[in-house]
């Protein structure tokens, strides 16, 4: 479970992001001030920081600059209402990894978060060190999923993607549907499978649950 720190002083936005990210399986911490953000970034060691610029005590740029000066290379996605090119360039100059302007598309934001986390993960082992493909059990067939859990064809597609660790944003893009439709499908699939978390889907799919 990836840890994400959301630094945002508008409570409605902060809590909305927290709910959405947690539903996608992320562990989320919130900070509403620059000083708090720096403390949490040190104590919680998040794998990604979503950073607003308009904080009440210090500018978000200060947070970013302090992180980089302290040697903290955690990926930072700036989420700000500031749209000027100069603001974006300043963010990238200080070490931001991405910049999204408000108002934002939740699907785009979630896709960008997923992409940043993927890039930050260690490289996969080389082909010579991978476990043999045969060592992994075969997943449940479509027929078994349909008969045991009464899943529709589209829900089976969602199960397969959940089993591979795809987020709702990635599922939406892959199956060409809206983010909220993907989220609804995920809710329905979890209910039909009788599991409480996305991580449990993979275990069930490969007979390890």
Q: How is the secondary structure organized here?
A:
Blueprint: E1 3-7, H1 11-23, E2 27-31, H2 34-43, E3 48-51, H3 60-69, E4 76-80, H4 85-94, E5 98-101, H5 106-120, H6 142-149, H7 153-163, H8 168-175, H9 179-193, H10 199-205
Parallel strand pairs: 1-2, 1-3, 3-4, 4-5
Helix pairs in contact: 2-3, 5-8, 7-9, 7-10, 8-9
Number of domains: 2
Which CATH first-tier class of the largest domain would you pick? Answer: Alpha Beta
The radius of gyration over CA amounts to 19 Å
CATH architecture of the largest domain: 3-Layer(aba) Sandwich
Report strand order across the widest sheet. 2-1-3-4-5
CATH topology of the largest domain: Rossmann fold
- Low-pLDDT stretches are none
Classification by helices and strands: alpha/beta
According to CATH, the homologous superfamily of the largest domain is Response regulator
Distance between the termini: 18 Å
Please report the number of helical segments: 10
Plain-language structure description:
- This protein is an alpha/beta fold.
- 51% of the residues lie in helices and 11% in strands.
- The protein is built from 10 helices and 5 strands, in the order E-H-E-H-E-H-E-H-E-H-H-H-H-H-H.
- Strands 2-1-3-4-5 form a 5-stranded parallel β-sheet, with helices on both faces.
- Strand 3, helix 3 (60-69) and strand 4 form a beta-alpha-beta unit.
- Helix 7 (153-163) crosses helix 10 (199-205).
- The protein is elongated.
Using brief descriptors, characterize the structure shown.
209 residues, alpha/beta, Rossmann fold, five-stranded parallel β-sheet, 10 helices, 5 strands, 51% helix
């Amino acid at each position: 479970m990836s840890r994400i720190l959301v630094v945002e002083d508008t409570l409605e936005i902060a809590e909305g992001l927290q709910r959405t990210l947690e539903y996608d399986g992320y562990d989320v911490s919130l900070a509403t001030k620059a000083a708090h953000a720096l403390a949490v970034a040190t104590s919680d060691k998040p794998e990604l920081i979503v950073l607003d610029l308009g904080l009440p005590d210090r500018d978000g740029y200060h947070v970013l600059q302090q992180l980089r000066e302290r040697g903290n290379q955690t990926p930072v996605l700036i989420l700000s209402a500031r749209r000027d090119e100069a603001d974006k360039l300043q963010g990238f100059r200080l070490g931001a990894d991405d910049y999204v302007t408000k108002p934002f598309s939740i699907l785009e934001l979630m896709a960008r978060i997923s992409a940043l986390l993927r890039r930050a993960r260690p490289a996969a082992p080389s082909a010579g060190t991978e476990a043999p493909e045969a060592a992994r059990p075969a997943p449940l067939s479509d027929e078994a999923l349909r008969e045991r859990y009464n899943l529709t064809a589209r829900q089976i597609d969602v199960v397969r993607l959940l089993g591979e660790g795809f987020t709702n944003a990635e599922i939406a893009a892959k199956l060409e549907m809206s983010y909220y439709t993907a989220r609804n499908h995920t809710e329905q699939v979890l209910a039909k499978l009788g599991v409480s978390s996305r991580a449990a889907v993979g275990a069930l799919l490969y007979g390890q649950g």
